[in-house]
Amino acid sequence: MTQVDPTAGSAAGSAVGPGAGSALFAATVGLAGNAPPRAGAWRLFRDNPVSVAAALVLLVVLVVGLVGRWVAPYGINAVDVANALQPPSGAHWFGTDDLGRDVFSRVLVATQVSLRVAFVSVAFALVVGVGVGVVAGYRGGWLDTVLMRVVDVMFAFPVLLLALAIIAVLGPGTTTTILAIGIVYTPIFARVARASALSVRVEPFVQVSQTMGTPSGYILRRHVLPGVSGPVIVQTSLSVAFAILSEAALSFLGLGVQPPEPSWGRMLFDAQGFLGLAWWMSVFPGLAIFVSVLAFNLIGDGIRDVLDPRQRTLLQARRSTRVPGRRRAARTGGAA
Amino acid sequence: MTGTPAVVPANGAVLSVADLRVSIGGREIVRGVSFDVRPGQTLGIVGESGSGKSMTVLAATGLLDAPGARVTGSSLITGTDGGAPTQLIGAAERTLRRVHGDRVGFVFQDPSTSLNPVLTLERQISESLETHRGMTRRAARTRALDLLTAVGIPDPERRLDGYPHQLSGGQRQRVMIAIALACDPTLLIADEPTTALDVTTQAQIVELVRALQQERGTAVVWISHDLGLIGQVADDVTVLRQGEAVEQQPVLGVFDAPRHAYTRQLLDARPLLGQSAPPPADASGAALLTVESLDVRFAVTGPTGRSVVHAVDDVSFTVRRGRTLGVVGESGSGKSTIAGALTGLVRPRAGAARLDGEDLLAGRGASGRRLRRRVAMVFQDPFSSLNGRSTIGTSIAEPLRVHRLTASGAAERARIAELLELVDLSGDYVDRYPHELSGGQRQRVSIARALALEPDLVILDESTASLDVSIQARVLELLLRLQAELGLTYLFIAHDLGVVQRMSHDVLVLRGGRTVEHRPAADLFADPREEYTRALLDAVPPVRPRAAQAG
Amino acid sequence: MTAGSIARFLGRRVAHSAVVLLGVMVVVFALVQLVPGDPVRIALGTRYTQEAYDALRAASGLDRPLLEQFLSYVGNALTGDLGVSFRTGEAVAGTLLERLPATVSLALVGVVIALVVALPAGIWSGLHEGRVSDAVVRVVSQAGVSVPDFWLGMLLITVVASGLGWLPSSGYVPIAEDPVQWARRVALPALTVGLVAAAIMTRYVRTAVLEVSHAGYVRTARSKGLPASVVTGRHVVRNALIPILTITGIQLATILGGVIVVEVVFAWPGLGRLTYDAVAARDYPLIQGAVLLMAVMFLLVNLVVDALYSVVDPRIRLS
């Protein structure tokens, strides 16, 4: 697994002067702060065909995750050795595996497993990370230093390696996988939330509250948390994508979700010995991962675009002129 | 120094703009502006925010880079070596590139972002010489040295190999001017070139541009929001309002016989020196705020280590009840840091501040919170000092709730309505969001929120500096009225001496964190004792335009 | 003055890395402490003699007090002694060093592939924001980020190795032994790693270029009438280089420590494969050693990046 989250850019850049690393970080943290209410944001999101397509795909994935178990044509462990390694057909849309199990049914059911692991682990990372990050960023001082050193330490471990190490300690399984993925994605949320909280903290409207003697709790609840919500929403969408990938990788290594429960990664693990023999065993579960991850990533991107003030202006300008791709109009659409 | 005599369009102008229109997203921002720039003369373009002044000039010179903008009209610039004038509207990139940097030079507003941080000054000056003049690197370097010398950069030889971050703001703007003039352009575009600078630096830049212009015969378009400044630099003036040129005539005419009501309004709203003072207030009343030997230091962590900035160094002053103390200083003077220390945002290293005898600096916990209530602050930026996600009502309610100043929801609503009325806003603003309000309206809301605390002392930290002059004048009037009605005491922090004179009974002049002068306003303005105070006063653009003094 | 500020800057970075390294060691050390039950017993399986148990326990120092264990662990680690493998009884450090070249060659080739793809694509896309070509680059790179790397590897094996038979699907030959065979064998795994990294880096490069292209000094450069190539090269890309350096460093470090799955797919005898086997066998000293080594590599790569910053950015060199 070689994925890093888009915000990890500051791992090296955080201590470097103006400009360095900030361009990367700004990608999400720039959304923090004093944005007006989100009126119109939804309309802009809706106007982006890529976002809409991604949302529709995501909807399908979620529905499959919810009802997959009931609509699957075959049992997930319905072994039928006589029909092993059948290519896709009318009876078996995605073919059958080496034990004759229906790949389509297994992909459907695995959706739920994979999504559950991703959602629960990201929820864990979100709650812990945002809590730590907001407190560190808002309070500053020694607490900030200590918390951020801990985050630095966690960033020094490659994501999958840290997850592996945690599994080595706790033993493989679904619960461990959730915990491991949750832990490795916590520091990213902490970084995003801290950087956003830092930028909100110096906003004049927060300073006004401080000069008026408003208690920290009120300021955190009323001003800081809403201020960091934009970057955190974007990060959540992207992290779910990465969590699906991480779960797949761990299960592929045989250390994540354990049989008899099917998971996309585990199915790819099973397919390994049959790469030349039965392409469908690896292609369809892989496609399922790819499509779900892509949907979450594109939606994260779409949200970022409508929340980013500069992007927003661009989108709004385009929306009202209805001439996409005319960026150079100012220079070419002249007197003629 | 000037190159070959410029060939001018038929009407003799260096730049001739006719019926220029810019629209973005179906909305017309510039609506049919025409103007001519005469050789060797300065055209001042003045307008408030939203007047489209920068957009007009950037569109006319082919440098506008706004997404989805449509530009129509005509803009002709004189050709070189007897060639025909060049049409810039709708011109090809290649044509524009030949004109930019060669026949037109540009100076932009913010010197801290206009220079490339990773290139040497030599490279940044010489690259246009290499492009347009075909100079060798060596020849360009010699020319760059001449230019740095001409714009008054000390030790230019050494600076050639230096980088922008080693220069002060004023020096960076001098380098920008050197870059703009590198190829001896016939036209210099200066887009608010002094707005980000201190007044004394502004005065130097004005003189520099003037001297270079006379020496080289360059025509200048000077864009500014400040009519006083335009009076000092311009020969002709175009007044823009909402994308339309409402007044165009020589500078003397604009000042002496303005034709349009809007021009008159701009002239009247200017905060001028020696024009007005606040109503008198008791000079022997009780001291409300006493500050003694205040000392604030900041640790600054850079990429290569920590350093300490001594922001406020042994500053003492007194503010009497019902009076206004004006605090004046340029950037780095420590004036805002003092406000921060008094409101608990910044922790001072030493010194004392007493409000009615109570220690303002030590206050923490419940007693601290009570003291916070007695000192209110209004910040500079009307856009960021209100939470964009909260309604106006919620913002004003915050101090009421935090300090339990109203007994019930109904009382709270009534009080908010009352406060809005106090700042001349109607009650239906309660449910609106800040982005629906203009800058002046937002600043009124900020003032209402400050008043909600029922404070003894109101700190106004550049509270009107970001507003357009006409709006600033009305907000200042409001502040004076509130002081009279509610008996408020102000600590009025500003860089604009005209505004300070209008508001203050006493004045404290700061420089580099230290007190320069602390005296009653009338004495200080009539007879400044310190040279620095005099320099500040001299740097303020006078009431009459420069042309009037010359003629 | 120049040397002084670079030294100060790097000094701070080294000090910071040292603190992080100490934290890393705490985590790595704590790993074994957190194992429920007795790690030695787990490692030995069900059948063992008391003698073997005592010997392994003493050799791994698990019979001493915790703080002493930690201090001696740090002391040993700093002198290159990472203990002995539960499984093979060989020195962990030696085993790791043996596997390092395979991983490093894979990572370096991967990063080169990533840069070759990401730099032009990201710069193009960033300079043409909002155009169709930008949208294509954005969607394609987003797709690349969404592909599980091991799946991409499996597809490449299916098509290129099994299907077309152009390249071997697994195995490793040291470059010193036979450069041609090395290249043939590194191609597919490096392509797998490189393409995924390219997708990530394209997005970063695009963001960096986009950010810079809206900077005031780029407008200044345009106002000088410079050729587009000069504006792009000298002004946009030079400044975007700083964040690009950052992400290149991070990608290199991530690949060095994160190619576990790809190494498993391609049977590549590197650190990732070693770690995987160690986890499966619960060989704790080896897991600890591998994790520590990868974290150290991450810190080292970042220090190199920091050193490069001070070359690229005069604000650090001359502050």
TrEMBL record, chain A:
One of its GO terms (biological process) is transmembrane transport. The chain crosses the membrane at residues 52-72, 117-138, 150-170, 232-257, 277-300. It is a multi-pass membrane protein. The keyword Transmembrane helix applies. It holds the Pfam family BPD_transp_1. It is found in: Cell membrane. Residues 111-300 form the ABC transmembrane type-1 domain. Its main location: membrane. Keywords: Cell membrane, Membrane, Transmembrane, Transmembrane helix, Transport. CDD domains: TM_PBP2. It comes from the Bacteria. GO terms for cellular component: plasma membrane. Belongs to the binding-protein-dependent transport system permease family. This is ABC transporter permease. It comes from Cellulomonas aerilata.
UniProtKB/TrEMBL annotation, chain B:
One of its GO terms (cellular component) is plasma membrane. Signal peptide: none annotated. The keyword Cell membrane applies. It is found in: Cell membrane. Keywords: ATP-binding, Cell membrane, Membrane, Nucleotide-binding, Transport. Belongs to the ABC transporter superfamily. InterPro entries: AAA+_ATPase, ABC_Ni/Peptide_Import, ABC_transporter-like_ATP-bd, ABC_transporter-like_CS, Oligopep_ABC_C, P-loop_NTPase. The lineage of its organism: Bacteria, Bacillati, Actinomycetota, Actinomycetes, Micrococcales. CDD domains: ABC_NikE_OppD_transporters. This is ABC transporter ATP-binding protein. It is a peripheral membrane protein. Its main location: membrane.
UniProtKB/TrEMBL annotation, chain C:
InterPro entries: BPD_transp_1_N, MetI-like, MetI-like_sf. It is found in: Cell membrane. One of its GO terms (cellular component) is plasma membrane. Keywords: Cell membrane, Membrane, Transmembrane, Transmembrane helix, Transport. It is a multi-pass membrane protein. Residues 100-309 form the ABC transmembrane type-1 domain. It comes from the Bacteria. The chain crosses the membrane at residues 14-35, 104-127, 148-167, 187-205, 244-266, 286-309. Its main location: membrane. GO terms for biological process: transmembrane transport. Pfam families: BPD_transp_1 (PF00528), BPD_transp_1_N (PF19300). SUPFAM superfamilies: MetI-like. Belongs to the binding-protein-dependent transport system permease family. This is Peptide ABC transporter permease.
